[in-house]
């Protein structure tokens, strides 16, 4: 069942990338995936809902790529920052049509609006911390202002790319150009200047996000406990049950800290592993949990 959903997501992502979102129809997707339209609508209400989910998944992959770059040794802080900014810019360029759709629907959809707001908050928080790492503690009072300006520069140039052929723009040249502008901006701050942006302005949104995450974590942990209870009542060997309990422990660990988001690819991988074991007593709980997690993450 879930393999069909995954097949639709992966197939649509390929088609959107190759043909573009606007020129890809539901009929194109079902033909590419070799399924019926009925199967498509069993999982998704519309092409728009599917596109929005793909954008969220690509956002998760973007952050995975950014964190992976942190593991590379031998780079200066500025070199690392530049390479991470390239990932950020490429993400926007690769998904320009989906972003356009999200911005359009944000006027009518609370979910789209919340996602775009969350995206900007994530970017500003991350950029502000990187600014301090690269330019030093002296710039910390203005880190959020720098982040807002840097994000503005990147998005402004990205919008121009939307309007012209992408191949005429070299991302390396653009990011290096933007960084040189940021170098000048950092030097221009007066020690007595009052910052415009700071973390306090984001606290209301961050508090709401933490509350939503706490609710998600409670729901997931309740499901995990139900599955543990079901496994304990089963008459199976210790050798059979041990990897299942270990998998549930790993799953719970992903939801152990409300200050950080679980890694969606690990969560889905663990749930799909449990599904493949075809344990009847866990089937319904796993199906519900996988659907819930895929919607929320």
From TrEMBL:
Q: Which Gene3D superfamilies match?
A: Tetracycline Repressor, domain 2
Q: Does the keyword DNA-binding apply?
A: yes
The HTH tetR-type domain covers 2-62
Q: Which residues bind DNA?
A: 25-44
Ordered alphabetically, the record's keywords are: DNA-binding
Q: Which Pfam families match?
A: TetR_N
What is the protein name for this chain?
Transcriptional regulator, TetR family
Q: What is the lineage of its organism?
A: Bacteria, Bacillati, Bacillota, Bacilli, Bacillales
């Amino acid at each position: 069942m879930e393999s069909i959903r995954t097949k639709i997501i992966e197939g649509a992502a390929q088609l959107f990338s190759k043909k573009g979102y606007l020129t890809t129809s539901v009929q194109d997707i079902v033909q590419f995936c070799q399924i019926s339209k009925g199967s498509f609508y069993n999982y998704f209400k519309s092409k728009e809902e599917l596109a929005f989910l793909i954008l969220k998944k690509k956002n998760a992959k973007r952050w995975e790529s950014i964190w992976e770059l942190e593991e590379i040794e031998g780079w200066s802080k500025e070199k690392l920052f530049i390479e991470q900014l390239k990932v950020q810019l490429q993400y926007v360029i690769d998904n320009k049509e989906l972003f356009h759709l999200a911005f359009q629907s944000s006027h009518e959809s609370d979910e789209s609006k919340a996602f775009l707001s969350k995206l900007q908050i994530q970017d500003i928080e991350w950029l502000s911390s990187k600014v301090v790492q690269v330019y030093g503690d002296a710039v910390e009072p203005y880190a959020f202002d720098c982040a807002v300006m840097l994000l503005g520069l990147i998005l402004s140039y990205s919008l121009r790319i939307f309007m012209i052929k992408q191949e005429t723009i070299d991302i390396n040249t653009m990011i290096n150009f933007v960084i040189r502008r940021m170098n000048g901006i950092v030097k221009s701050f007066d020690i007595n200047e009052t910052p415009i942006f700071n973390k306090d302005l984001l606290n209301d949104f961050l508090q709401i996000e933490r509350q939503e995450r706490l609710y998600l974590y409670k729901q997931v942990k309740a499901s995990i406990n139900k599955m543990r209870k079901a496994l304990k009542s089963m008459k199976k060997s210790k050798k059979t049950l041990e990897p299942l309990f270990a998998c549930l422990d790993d799953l719970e660990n992903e939801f152990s800290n409300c200050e950080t988001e679980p890694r969606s690819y690990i969560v889905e991988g663990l749930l799909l592993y449990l599904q493949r074991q075809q344990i009847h007593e866990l089937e319904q709980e796993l199906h519900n949990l996988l659907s819930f997690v895929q919607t929320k993450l």
